[in-house]
Structure to design on (320 residues):
């Protein structure tokens, strides 16, 4: 941290006293993030720093629960960082943008890659932090690609600024808030991935997932991933949705049925057991025959019982 940066930090008078959480990771760059926070504390009491228990993919600072800043706000990135902190206290999107933000129902992920020498990156940071501050459904992760080159390579980022919505739509260069928000709204469709649906499920909104799929007569792109998730509580929540679909729109389950059968042999025993339960709820006579064919190869007693129950469930439901 050079003297000019220190002087700017000393001179900054925040609108409030923001509390920033320091993400706790095992990443090699963790020490740089912690060192920066200590230096800031020595220079100014303008920020309250704390260790965060919130899971984080990279080291960084949680400006809010939905905003992670994985960068060191130095050089030309310091001013937009300070403006971003002020926007946490008083977000200021234009009225028409705020109305759109208020109507966003499903969570989304925005990942912004920046670089310290990039001329357009400060403007993107200034635009995006207020958007996420004004809408908790937007999960914003700002990443310095030169500080975390492996992550940038993983996301196939070649230049900065690069903004990625969820894992597919991306912009390179400067982009207006209106365009970003319009794309978020347009993406709020049946293309939601497993991560987004998991967040909705954990918010206690399984009924929302069910109703959207029933209304659209389509499955969310990432729904099958909930049933195959490593966390049991996520699979359990997805089962509630499956039971509702089986009752109200059994034809909607045919694609799901194919996916579950296709991946069955690749999954661990607990997930296989839940797959069998789901197939029992949505399966056809052909599914019953497939489960019966698997029974001889099942060595685990719990799986044998699950297969037996699934077959019985299909037979009872279809009066076979």
């Amino acid at each position: 941290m050079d003297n000019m940066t220190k002087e700017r930090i000393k001179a900054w008078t925040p609108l409030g006293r923001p509390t920033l959480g320091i993400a706790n990771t095992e990443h090699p760059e963790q020490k740089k993030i912690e060192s920066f926070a200590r230096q800031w504390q020595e220079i100014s009491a303008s920020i309250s720093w704390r260790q965060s228990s919130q899971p984080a993919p990279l080291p960084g600072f949680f400006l809010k629960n939905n905003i992670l800043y994985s960068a060191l706000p130095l050089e030309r990135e310091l001013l937009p960082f300070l403006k971003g902190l002020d926007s946490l206290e008083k977000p200021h999107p234009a009225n028409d943008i705020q109305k759109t933000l208020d109507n966003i129902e499903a969570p989304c992920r925005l990942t912004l890659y920046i670089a310290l020498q990039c001329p357009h990156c400060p403007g993107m940071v200034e635009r995006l932090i207020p958007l996420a501050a004004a809408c908790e459904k937007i999960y914003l992760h700002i990443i310095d690609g030169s500080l975390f080159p492996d992550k940038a390579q993983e996301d196939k980022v070649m230049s900065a600024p690069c903004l990625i919505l969820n894992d597919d739509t991306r912009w390179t260069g400067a982009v207006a808030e209106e365009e970003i928000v319009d794309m978020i709204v347009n993406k709020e469709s049946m293309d939601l991935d497993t991560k987004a649906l998991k967040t909705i499920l954990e918010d206690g909104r399984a009924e929302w997932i069910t109703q959207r799929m029933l209304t659209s007569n389509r499955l969310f792109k990432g729904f099958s991933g909930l049933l195959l998730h490593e966390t049991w509580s996520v699979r359990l929540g997805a089962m509630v949705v499956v039971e509702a679909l089986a009752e109200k729109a059994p034809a909607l389950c045919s694609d799901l049925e194919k996916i579950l059968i296709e991946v069955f042999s690749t999954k661990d025993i607990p997930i296989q057991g839940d797959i069998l339960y789901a197939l029992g709820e949505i399966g056809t006579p052909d599914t019953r025959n497939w489960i019966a064919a698997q029974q001889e190869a099942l060595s685990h007693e719990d799986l044998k019982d699950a297969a037996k129950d699934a077959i019985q469930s299909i037979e009872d439901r279809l009066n076979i």
The longest strand covers residues 108-114. The two ends are 74 Å apart (CA to CA). The longest helix spans residues 301-318.
